[in-house]
């Protein structure tokens, strides 16, 4: 039972990078679509907005170092999914967006719970505008909507400067939309397969005549049934943000967003993938183990306040206070066991009710500026942050656990809802973290730049979770160093190394808590920016290692004990995004990895060793109102060994298509077709149980903008 809510590609890319300067000279640049003036805010390190640029890339990002740098100046791989790409391919959920990034694997273990991996390791670092999000178990419960975001950055490898705790996988940074000085508005109505209906609204502009106070309001509402039997999902999104100029140099920003999800008959756990004789099952894609009374409701509320001040041309400071409350309640049916191939029998019930409340408060203070040394100007950022997270949850277990169930082929979800008073268990624990950090970009010469810094972090937790002591405490200094050498004005060589750590509460056979997980990442590569910084490209060779991750090693009596697992990942990643021609936008990513333990054995076999992602849109000549596009995702085969045998998912390819026609300057109509070939595949092998992803589906939308 799951815990309670718990070498040819190289040659080609090098040739493309080296040829790009010539293409840049030959290909005429196009004017970007006009963008309403965006106020420079205390969050300007994440500006400029990608809205209305039409680009599949960004000019600046601070997601890797805290310094506002171009992707070429950043000594780590950074992939970006912009607002334009989200709109073109209707990427309305975080799962959709991360499935379109160059190197992230979306592990959809259930309908309403998802894990993520990159470079073979779990992703546990999620941020909004550079401030951590409260994913208590390193996963996402519910369907996080993307309506409020301008873009999503993925920084690959460890990220010792921005988030000292976590794994050497990736950090995902969601960049919010901000108010515009000029009035702008948009709305959209979408209808799709399985009675999916969605309404979007977005309005922004000045709130007083002087323009010193500006605001933005974003709302979304979606209702949908599913290809899965009995499953349905509704969600509503609200985001409001106001900026006020308190003076010529001081800006106050306050905002609030909330999202409510309601899932009817969701999966808790999934389908058995093997029969008791070791042969693979092969259920219909619509098969679900859920009952008709099951539900899973979540609510996220987050409020933030930012105060920024520009001291002079070189120096600024910003203070951010964030409060997030995450609650969820559910009544669910988990089905366990291994069925017989001849009868389908051998499955049993495990009904449960669950409620959780996670309250997180965060404060961050930072200063950024320039200083002169040895006749050159350099950049510096430093600051400190503090966070506290309190989690309370309770499980009420239902009567009749272990009741035999019919074969899933005959399962209709008709199971009498029991009283949930068989037993009770739960958690109460508190997590605290304090950090101080500094990073500098030193201009050693016109061509050579050094980025170096460190973060000192203390992390501690106390309390219990389902009878297990969650006591842990660890402190560490995580260094960061990167070099960038400009070969030309378009091309740079780079290298970087950084570390990361995570405290652990699990105990070994002697009863002592395991030492923290330690992660390291090393990366070298080649980066380029072309066509007036409208196209970014990179090639990275990387090596990451994770040491001492807790792995179950057995029991002493009824108490589990753990041992530390070491793993090493190495490979290469290719990333390209932006404008290839005045009519063509594209995003391309290819990642190839190997991952082994210290004995040289393959580990984490559910993570694909090769991953290809590509998206492109094209404005049709002669029919200027028409844009067409395609999205392709391919991954190599994956497998998981179990006590009954091996579960294997063969390599597969998914293709999605889009088209949009601009009726006039305000109105447009669009259509999207997903999984064109109707590929049947398992959504994830992260767990022994799994389910099948969505078959071919389509949507159409009517869009308006002002």
Automatic annotation (TrEMBL):
GO BP annotation list: siderophore transport
Residue span(s) of domain TonB-dependent receptor-like beta-barrel: 269-676
InterPro entries with a match to the protein in the record: Beta-barrel_TonB, Beta-barrel_TonB_sf, Plug_dom, Plug_dom_sf, TonB-dep_rcpt-like, TonB_sidphr_rcpt
Signal peptide feature range: 1-24
Domain TonB-dependent receptor plug: 71-164
Any one Gene Ontology cellular component term annotated for this protein: cell outer membrane
GO MF: siderophore uptake transmembrane transporter activity; signaling receptor activity
Family the entry assigns: Belongs to the TonB-dependent receptor family.
PANTHER family on file: FERRICHROME IRON RECEPTOR-RELATED, HYDROXAMATE SIDEROPHORE RECEPTOR FHUE
Annotated protein name in UniProt: TonB-dependent receptor
Organism: Dechloromonas denitrificans
Lineage, opening ranks: Bacteria, Pseudomonadati, Pseudomonadota, Betaproteobacteria, Rhodocyclales
């Amino acid at each position: 039972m799951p815990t309670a809510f718990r070498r040819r590609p190289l040659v080609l890319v090098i040739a493309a990078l080296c040829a790009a300067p010539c293409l840049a000279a030959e290909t005429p640049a196009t004017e970007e679509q006009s963008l309403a003036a965006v106020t420079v805010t205390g969050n300007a390190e994440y500006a400029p907005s990608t809205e209305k640029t039409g680009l599949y890339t960004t000019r600046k990002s601070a997601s890797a170092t805290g310094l506002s740098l171009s992707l070429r100046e950043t000594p780590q791989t950074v992939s970006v999914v912009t607002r334009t790409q989200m709109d073109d391919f209707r990427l309305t959920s975080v799962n959709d967006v991360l499935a379109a990034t160059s190197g992230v694997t979306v592990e959809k273990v259930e309908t309403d719970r998802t894990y993520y991996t990159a470079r073979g390791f779990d992703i546990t670092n999620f941020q909004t505008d550079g401030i951590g999000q409260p994913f208590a178990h390193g996963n996402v419960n519910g369907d996080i909507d993307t309506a409020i975001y301008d873009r999503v950055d993925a920084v690959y490898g460890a990220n010792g400067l921005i988030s000292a705790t976590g794994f050497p996988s990736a950090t995902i940074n969601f960049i919010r939309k901000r108010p515009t000085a000029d009035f702008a508005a948009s709305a959209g109505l979408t209808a799709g397969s399985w009675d999916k209906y969605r309404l979007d609204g977005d309005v922004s502009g000045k709130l007083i005549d002087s323009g010193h106070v500006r605001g933005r309001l974003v709302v979304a509402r979606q209702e949908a049934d599913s290809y899965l039997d009995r499953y349905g999902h509704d969600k509503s999104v609200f985001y409001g943000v106001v900026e006020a100029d308190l003076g010529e140099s001081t800006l106050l920003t306050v905002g609030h967003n909330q999202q409510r999800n309601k899932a009817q008959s969701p999966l808790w756990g999934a389908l058995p993938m093997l029969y008791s004789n070791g042969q693979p099952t092969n259920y219909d894609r619509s098969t679900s183990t859920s009952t008709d009374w099951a539900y899973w409701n979540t609510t996220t509320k987050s409020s933030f306040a930012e105060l920024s001040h520009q001291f002079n041309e070189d120096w600024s400071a910003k203070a951010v206070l964030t409060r997030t409350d995450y609650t969820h309640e559910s009544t669910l049916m988990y089905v366990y066991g291994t069925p017989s191939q001849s009868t389908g029998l051998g499955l049993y019930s495990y009904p449960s009710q669950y409620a959780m409340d996670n309250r997180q408060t965060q404060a961050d203070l930072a200063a950024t500026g320039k200083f002169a040394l040895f006749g050159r100007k350099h950049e510096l950022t430093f600051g400190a942050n503090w966070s506290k997270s309190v989690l309370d949850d309770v499980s009420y277990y239902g009567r009749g656990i272990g009741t035999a169930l019919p074969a899933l082929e005959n399962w209709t979800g008709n199971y009498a809802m029991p009283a949930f008073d068989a037993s009770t268990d739960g958690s109460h624990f508190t997590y605290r973290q304090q950090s101080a950090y500094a990073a500098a970009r030193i201009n050693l010469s016109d061509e050579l730049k050094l980025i170096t810094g460190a973060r000192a972090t203390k992390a501690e937790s106390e309390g219990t979770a389902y009878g297990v002591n969650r006591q842990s405490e660890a402190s560490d200094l995580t260094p960061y160093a990167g070099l960038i050498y400009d070969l030309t004005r378009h091309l740079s060589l780079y290298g970087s190394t950084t570390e990361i750590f995570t405290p652990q509460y699990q105990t070994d056979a002697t009863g002592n808590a395991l030492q923290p997980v330690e992660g390291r990442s090393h990366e070298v590569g080649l980066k380029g920016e072309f066509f007036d910084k409208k196209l970014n490209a990179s090639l990275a060779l990387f090596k990451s290692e994770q040491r001492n991750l807790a792995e179950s090693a057995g029991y002493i009596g009824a108490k589990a004990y753990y041992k530390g697992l070491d793993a090493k990942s190495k490979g290469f990643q290719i990333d390209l995004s932006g404008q290839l021609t005045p009519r063509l936008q594209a995003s391309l990513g290819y990642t190839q990895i190997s991952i082994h333990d210290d004995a040289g054995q393959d580990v984490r076999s559910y993570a694909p060793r090769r991953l290809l992602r590509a998206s492109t849109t094209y404005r049709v000549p002669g029919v200027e109102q028409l844009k067409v596009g395609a999205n392709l995702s391919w991954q190599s085969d994956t497998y998981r060994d179990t006590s009954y045998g091996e579960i294997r998912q063969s390599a597969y390819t998914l293709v999605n298509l889009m088209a949009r026609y601009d009726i006039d300057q305000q109105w447009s109509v669009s259509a999207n077709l997903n999984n064109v070939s109707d590929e049947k595949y398992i959504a994830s092998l992260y767990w022994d149980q799994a389910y099948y992803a969505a078959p071919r589906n389509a949507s159409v939308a009517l869009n308006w903008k002002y």
